[in-house]
């Protein structure tokens, strides 16, 4: 949706997973804009200033992902509501097919996946993670080993004509920068996707400021990095901010805090370790074999009882998916669904939920019949606090699996518990495999 079609009254964010939708949209909530994440585009709260739709397309085929993304745009676009296509900062999923589906509908794709606050930068149209080429990282090797991670070849493989915008261009004369982007977005422009290098938050801030006032047909394509720079602009929307009546969930409420971890990244493992060590939260690691078979597995009832015993006693608990030699990244959604099924009978007892991994978070919300979240606050970059369906309980924190500092889960736990500094106690591990 271009600004030329009407005043900028809102933002539509289309994301391919739940944690991504939340970490992209949370900056707008922090700026006092009513912001919701919806799991169902057809049932979204259209009164919110910012709507982040989780299309749950990361594990679909490219053609299915493209069709579902276009459907979300058709269901939620409106006069004055601008489009932001949220993509993973490490380029997971079907993002190129989704961008290609949106480009004929919304104009030039301004592609800027950098998220400097989390160590993701873009140089020479290639993503770096803490200075390391994306191709070399565990995240890329797990799902895309042997594939070229260059932004230009990935987009051109979808038939999109590309141009590149260097960091020098962002740091030069802004009038010249605006003219160059406007020319690319014009009807006579040769490009369908403009790839933007960015190494700092200041680079993204310049891009946000220059493009926010443009009327040419375009849409943003990025991670939470560019989104938070747009959210920081005081005049992005016509209406004044209208913060939620409750700016944060009640701290220290009764009920267990459940930390549900579907991500197998080394980052998540370190975060769990700190939570165990500093807060003494016990951990259950569910074997993948149990989750693959579900109720058919001989130990299913045992695991259901073990998790239930902790949560029914209002005892905080980490529950995460184990890993074995048979693990396949493609089974992530199924394992997450089964993990949520183990928790679902006891969900009503929870005082708070921390969900790591978008598939895991979505599976748990679906199992608990929660179709939307209202975003409230951010604990650290990419770690969002929300409440379900406008209610106060349970408070929910979402975080992408490979995101966050080693303190991320510990900080989220402190936030939900309302505890300044828990005693350092030895963690108890209830099961290791």
Automatic annotation (TrEMBL):
Keywords: ATP-binding, Carbohydrate metabolism, Kinase, Nucleotide-binding, Transferase
InterPro entries, per database record: 4-carb_acid_sugar_kinase_N, 4-carb_acid_sugar_kinase_N_sf, NBD_C, NBD_C_sf
Domain Four-carbon acid sugar kinase N-terminal residues, every copy: 11-230
Gene Ontology molecular function terms on file: ATP binding; kinase activity
Ranges for domain Four-carbon acid sugar kinase nucleotide binding: 258-409
Transferase in keyword set: yes
Family note: Belongs to the four-carbon acid sugar kinase family.
Name of the molecule in the record: YgbK domain-containing protein
Lineage, opening ranks: Bacteria, Pseudomonadati, Pseudomonadota, Betaproteobacteria, Burkholderiales
